[in-house]
Design goal:
The chain is built from 19 helices and eleven strands. Helices cover about 50% and strands about 10% of the residues. It has three domains: about 5-65, no CATH class; about 70-360 and about 425-450, Aldolase class I (TIM Barrel), CATH 3.20.20; about 365-415, no CATH class. A hairpin with a 2-residue loop joins strand 1 and strand 2. The two termini are about 25 Å apart.
């Protein structure tokens, strides 16, 4: 159901939600978890009426707050990891490119079943574009999923790879930096209290020294960190991540880590003595985003430099007090690789493409819709096909871009199809949670992360 106007929406709230100034009272939690939350999130995503969209957004987030579901920063936990008060696990950060409401429910169900404390929902700058999900929509969909599943507690929502385009930066540095700053502002307003700055694309390996190679990277990272500190809500310290090596490039080194961190901290001190810096550092250890597709569409095996990752994490903690290093591009690794990350104290691991592949490759995914999406890719995105790509390679590289144009069809799949896909994802997530050793960590999050309600003003359509 989609509410056609605010009058219809208000009628739908009766007996379930009550508006009290800038807050929401829950009158009937069972009804909210039943049909109302579905109607609210579908109205937010698909309504063509601005007033309905704004009302649904506010109602979902404030209803979540009333139930104890709140956007949060993982900063306190990462500071504890930097102090070596807690260790032995790797925090999973999960990118959801499509079916966000249903996939987020699968993530949360798996987390609740396994009593997982730290898990992150994230979306990258590039994904925001091709999946047609602005930050506000992402936050609202995840919050709605939490309400639907009966989850209570913090939602760690993260801007992943808020990345500066090297090409656009070379053409007009000011415009590209403004674009990143605008996105950061939008994300914080939407409840993203974890943001990964990626200026590693500006590392220039042609420069004679490592410090010179990293200078633009650390200078701009410090500038963006300062902006984040200016914008973060009172009482919230946003967890900021930095990056020293672009994923898919050469492996990172300890020398690069030190050059970045020393330069970054110097720049940050110029901007304000009391400013907190980054909480973690992303590095390159041999992976690529999405993996490397072979001519038959299968994925090439990757050899991760675990010794390098372990050393980088150790230096990040002991010398700079960070939680450790972050591993990107990991979701297509073989199953036996995942328990190695907590063993070497990797702070965080980013998982995206593997879940996307589960959806597309599932026997429960409608063949007709998949054919329709692939036809779109072959006709509308033909210009992205490299001369030596097989059709299988081309489809693998581009099928992530089918989620946006076919969002409506995907969200409106039959309930039994969505349930089956969700079960497959839930099973995979449970497996990964065990491998990453985050099972039975709920109490740890309760110890370090305290609820912080950031008030949102009620939209005019709901007042009076």
């Amino acid at each position: 159901m989609i509410f056609e106007n605010t009058g219809e929406l208000k009628k739908g709230l009766q007996g379930t939600l009550e508006i009290d100034g800038d807050n929401v009272r829950i009158l009937d939690e069972e009804k909210l978890q039943g049909s109302l939350i579905d109607a609210l999130i579908y109205s937010y995503v698909f309504s063509s009426h601005h007033e309905v969209v704004e009302a649904a957004r506010w109602l979902i987030r404030r209803a979540g707050a009333s139930l104890g579901v709140f956007s949060a920063s993982i900063q306190p936990l990462y500071e504890a990891m930097g102090r070596r008060e807690v260790s032995g696990f790797t925090v999973p950060a999960i990118n959801i490119r499509g079916l966000t409401y249903d996939v987020a429910q699968a993530v949360i169900r798996a987390a609740m079943k396994n009593r997982v404390g730290p898990f992150i929902f994230e979306i990258a700058r590039s994904e925001i574009g091709y999946t047609f999900q602005r930050p506000a929509e992402y936050t609202v969909a995840v919050t709605a999923a939490a309400i639907k599943t009966g989850y209570r507690g913090p939602l760690f929502i993260q801007g992943d790879h808020f990345q500066v385009s090297a090409k656009k930066f070379a053409q007009d540095p000011g415009a590209e930096v403004r674009a990143i700053k605008d996105l950061i502002w939008e994300a914080i307003e939407a409840g993203f209290y974890n943001i990964d700055i990626d200026t590693s694309t500006l590392v220039d390996l042609k420069k004679p020294t490592v410090e010179e190679q990293q200078k633009t990277n650390y200078t701009l990272a410090a500038e963006l960190t300062t902006m984040i500190r200016d914008l973060e809500p009172a009482g919230v310290t946003i967890s900021v991540g930095g990056e020293i090596g672009e994923v898919g490039g050469k492996n990172s080194t300890v020398e690069e880590l030190r050059a970045f961190m020393n330069g970054y901290l110097e720049e940050l001190e110029k901007n304000g003595e009391a400013l907190k810096g980054i909480s973690k550092i992303s590095v390159q250890t041999g992976t690529t985003h999405g993996g490397v597709p072979l001519p038959d569409g299968s994925i090439a095996k990757v050899k991760i430099a675990f010794a390098t990752l372990e050393k980088l994490s150790e230096v990040a903690r002991t010398e700079y007090g960070l939680a450790g290093a972050v591993q990107h591009g990991a979701s297509t690794l073989p199953d036996e690789a995942f328990d190695k990350f907590p063993a070497i104290r990797t702070a965080e691991i980013h998982l995206a493409t593997g879940f996307q592949n589960i959806i597309y490759d599932s026997q429960n995914f409608p063949t007709g819709l998949k054919d329709k999406i692939y036809h779109y890719l072959k006709t509308e995105l033909a210009g992205e096909r490299k001369e030596d790509d097989t059709e299988e390679q081309f489809i693998y590289k581009t099928h992530k871009k089918g989620f946006g144009p076919f969002k409506r069809e995907l969200w409106h799949l039959p309930p039994d199809t969505l349930q089956s896909l969700g079960k497959e994802l839930e099973d995979k997530l449970s497996f990964l949670f065990h491998k990453l050793n985050v099972v039975n960590t709920e109490d740890m999050i309760k110890r370090f992360v305290k609820p912080m309600d950031v008030t949102l003003k009620a939209p005019p359509a709901l007042k009076g």
